[in-house]
Amino acid sequence: VALCRATGRQSRLVVALTPGTLLTSCGDTGAAAPTMWCEILDEGRWIIVDCSVGVVEDTKQLQLLSLSYVVGFSGLDARDVCPRYTVTLSAAHSRRLRGRWFVDALRELYPPLQGPELAKLQDRNREEDEVLLALARREAVPKTKTALQGHPTYVTEANIGKFQVIRPKKMVGVSAGQLVYLRANVQTVRSGQAWFRLGRSVTPGQEPVKRVSKRKRRREQQEHEHEDLY
């Protein structure tokens, strides 16, 4: 990684926090899975380079099984790149600890960027997000409601929160009689007052995207009161 950066090549150190079995396009190498390796950005594509097992190839042809977390450290940010190394992302997520601590921890590892550096990083990450989402979709849509609960790639309307909506609402499959969508399209919605507390405001005349029952604060509140979300 240091040599690549010294020559101006974008690269990052990738760490697998749960080692698995290393497989390549040539089959099982018979070697223990590495816990870290290098990724080099080449013409918009991340290439794996691991001298410990002699692997230099497209990451599409490499999979690590029994994973939980795979994190890429670029020096500017830290990214969850697990979809690149497994075709069963739901199995990897099932071995993770519950909660948002992992996402929050990655965000806090590096100081926020500004100006052109930030814009460049956002463009690069946006392109990679599309690739990682396509890789995550290699896993088939689950056939049962139980398997869909908490799935990292797929979701139904029954499995989203009260203050969430699916936008764009593009169906990708059907499971147990329910329409299935991409979890990446789940967005958070808030009331006008909640947006105001965040320093933002709802555009006059804007139509709400969801209406929910208003939280009761007094006994005299009527049950039919609702709250618009935007």
Structure description:
Strand 2 and strand 3 form a beta hairpin. By secondary structure, this protein is of the alpha+beta class. It has helices spanning 2-6, 89-94, 101-108, 115-136, 145-148, 192-197, and strands spanning 11-16, 21-24, 27-32, 36-42, 45-50, 55-58, 63-64, 70-73, 78-80, 154-155, 164-166, 173-175, 178-182, 186-188, 210-213, 226-229. The model has no long low-confidence stretch (mean pLDDT 83).
Succession of helices and strands: HEEEEEEEEEHHHHEEEEEHEE
Low-confidence stretches: none
Sheet with the most strands?
6 strands, antiparallel
- Radius of gyration (Å): 21 Å
Structural class: alpha+beta
Amino-to-carboxy terminus distance: 44 Å
Write out the strand line-up for the largest beta sheet, numbering strands in chain order.
6-5-4-1-8-9
Taken as a percent bin, the fraction of beta residues is 25-35%
Structure summary, number of beta strands: 16
Mean pLDDT reading: 83
Q: Helix share of residues?
A: 10-25%
Count of individual helical segments: 6
- Label the overall shape: globular
Oligomer designation:
single chain
Key words describing this protein structure:
alpha+beta, three-stranded antiparallel beta sheet, 6 helices, globular
Helix and strand topology:
Blueprint: H1 2-6, E1 11-16, E2 21-24, E3 27-32, E4 36-42, E5 45-50, E6 55-58, E7 63-64, E8 70-73, E9 78-80, H2 89-94, H3 101-108, H4 115-136, H5 145-148, E10 154-155, E11 164-166, E12 173-175, E13 178-182, E14 186-188, H6 192-197, E15 210-213, E16 226-229
